[in-house]
Amino acid sequence: MITALKKIYAFSGRWKRVLKKSVVFSLLHSIFDMFQIGALFLILNELVEGTKGRDILFAFLLLLAGVIGKIVCSYISDFSQTRVGYFMCADKRIHVGDRMKYMPMGYFNSHSLGDLTSTVTTTISDVENNAPSVLITVIHGFIHVTVITIVMFFFDWRIGLLACLGIALFLLCNSALQKKSQEVSPKRQAAQEDLVGATLEYIQGMGIVKSFNLGGGSNQKMKQAIEESRARNTKLETVFGPYGMVQLFVLRLASVAIMFCSILFYLQSSMTLVYCLLMCVASFLIFSELEAAGGKSFALRLIESSIDKVDAIDDTPVMDLSGKDITPKDTTIELQDVGFSYGDHRILNHVNLTIPAKTTTAIVGPSGSGKTTLCSLIARFWDVDEGCIKLGGTDIREYKLDSLLSNISMVFQNVFLFADSIENNIKFGKPDATHEEVVRAAKSACCHDFIMALPNGYDTVIGESGATLSGGEKQRISIARAILKDTPIIILDEATSSVDPENEAELQQAIEKLTEDKTVIIIAHRLKTVRNAQQIVVIANGGIVQRGTHQELMEQPGIYADFVNVREKAINWKLSGDKTQ
Ligand SMILES: Nc1ncnc2c1ncn2[C@@H]1O[C@H](COP(=O)(O)OP(=O)(O)OP(=O)(O)O)[C@@H](O)[C@H]1O
């Protein structure tokens, strides 16, 4: 239990002070609670002993002060704990999001989308909604019982000892409950993650589900995940139920024992009537908050396992801790004896390549040969296993990630647009750009006209009111994004899918604008792009098998000549097809 409490305290980060405030006010709450016992003592004394009447007035004032004090302390303590919950989790979410940017892509490979999504959403929400209140309830429960026990010792040490016995038995039951909770909590959490993962997969794959008419069987995985989550949650209840009952029984038994012994001591004349009555009333009060603490303490392990899960993301090594802000002296890129594997799957071996500044290098090769991987290594999505990659003569691992990526724009085939306005999507790489700069970039990327035709122009939120874009339009938006970022290096994964002729001309124009006077690495699929490149690199079987200009490569047999022949045949087919139309 102490470990879980410590973890919550550590998790509260810069909000520790507010958490401590909440604990302090919870302690004050317990002290004000004692005013009731003090007042009761005075009243009983007055009634039984018939001493001076002014004690009654004092007792009522004490009672009033106690009630007001409790209300104020309870308000401050509750408000502080709610604040801590929201603020510490908001900080954590931002922190985790920031950290993810610096993680190697391998992390996202080995951790499913559902796993990560549920960690940042439901897992942190568990902590947000429960951690401060459970922490305060548990601490308050113990403070409250300790204060009353001390007061009991003050009145009669025998009753004080009985109260201690009750607490000890409670702790024994609670530790058994904690052990059980440690066993079931991670399983319940894993089920929760699976459920989020299955739901995400189901929604993302909805197109396939519909097109293959798999409505009946495809959501089997999701149904299973729902069933598993239900079973785990039910198990939680059924496992904790009996422990909770035993805990409650022990406390109630201790209360009865205190009352019974107080009456017995009175009957044996070893306790006064006032003390006896006072102890009987106190026996109802002493364990009330501890009962609440016991009821919530099972959640401590759930919270602990949620915190462990979030901290596991936080503990993942990031790529950039020792990087420096470097401005490269030029944008020449050199790959020196580069080797790389995804796990055990070897992709590149001893790759040596120089991409001179302000030239275009086309990368071609069979599907799966490692073209995208090579580009990802240059942008440091992954780190090389052997050799090194240099930009402007400096190993890219010496750059801060931000500093390296401020030199590179990547335009992917599958464009991802955020559910935000078109303007913000274009501004993504340069958040401080003005509207005029955005419009200029959009015009250069040939997207201004279709953006203006959307319901709210640049303010149109993608995905809202049917504001969806075609593949070609999305690609041009991503080119506008890169034009606005205006980096000296452009990595471009050329579209393989055929774009309609009107779109194609505009796309080509946008690409030309983007790549003007830049160092360009292009994963090329179209003959025209390849032909115009100053350097063509052919990748196959884990390495560079051919390199040179179009002319040089056409003069030797090999993959490149085959690639060109296939493309030309395709064009001829298309042309002859056109003729027959
Ligand atoms: N994130 C990843 N994790 C594990 N393996 C991967 C990952 N990305 C790619 N691979 C594997 O690495 C190999 C090279 O992939 P890569 O995408 O670099 O090839 P490519 O030449 O760009 O292919 P294509 O032309 O089809 O896009 C493939 O076998 C692929 O399955």
UniProtKB/TrEMBL annotation:
CDD domains: ABC_6TM_exporters
ABC transporter domain residues: 333-566
Compartment annotation: Cell membrane
Gene Ontology cellular component annotations, sorted alphabetically: plasma membrane
InterPro entries for this protein: AAA+_ATPase, ABC1_TM_dom, ABC1_TM_sf, ABC_transporter-like_ATP-bd, ABC_transporter-like_CS, P-loop_NTPase, Type_1_exporter
Protein name, as recorded: ATP-binding cassette domain-containing protein
Alphabetical keyword list: ATP-binding, Cell membrane, Membrane, Nucleotide-binding, Transmembrane, Transmembrane helix, Transport
Chain ranges passing through the membrane: 23-44, 56-76, 134-153, 159-177, 240-266
Membrane association type: Multi-pass membrane protein
PROSITE patterns registered for this protein in UniProt: ABC_TM1F (PS50929), ABC_TRANSPORTER_1 (PS00211), ABC_TRANSPORTER_2 (PS50893)
Domain ABC transmembrane type-1 per the UniProt entry, residue ranges: 22-273
One annotated GO molecular function: ABC-type transporter activity
